[in-house]
Specification:
about 120 residues; Immunoglobulin-like; 2 domains; about 50% strand
Length: about 120
């Protein structure tokens, strides 16, 4: 779709339960598409592995988008801590974080888009 394009929709519900859609049981509306200037925010984990005491995660995202990766030792009352600094997906959409895990046997990671 292109900015300004629109489509009409109709929603119907048998509110009185008689098995038929009667007057007052339908409504119509119009959705108009408006393009934003923000880049898409989809993020995918391409690879994760242990390399010499470091946990390395490779991500794929829209080129130029910025992401902060965080880690928590548990998902029960998690305390999320930044892993490194904000990362920007390169021209091919890739970025990587390297987390020195030390003696930690488990960890949980999440990432959020930074404006």
């Amino acid at each position: 779709m292109v900015t300004g394009e629109a489509f009409q929709y109709t929603l119907s519900e048998d509110l009185d339960g008689n098995g038929a859609i009667g007057p007052g049981e339908s409504t119509t509306g119009v959705v108009t598409f408006v393009a934003g200037t923000e880049l898409a925010g989809t993020l995918e984990v391409l690879d994760s592995r242990m390399v010499g005491g470091n946990f390395t995660i490779t991500f794929s995202a829209m080129p130029g988008t910025k992401w902060q990766v965080q880690k928590s030792a548990t998902l029960v009352s998690p305390l999320w801590v930044d892993v490194g600094t904000v990362q920007t997906a390169d021209g091919n959409g890739y970025f990587q974080i390297v987390d020195p895990v030390g003696s930690a046997s488990t960890g949980f990671y999440m990432a959020y888009r930074v404006p």
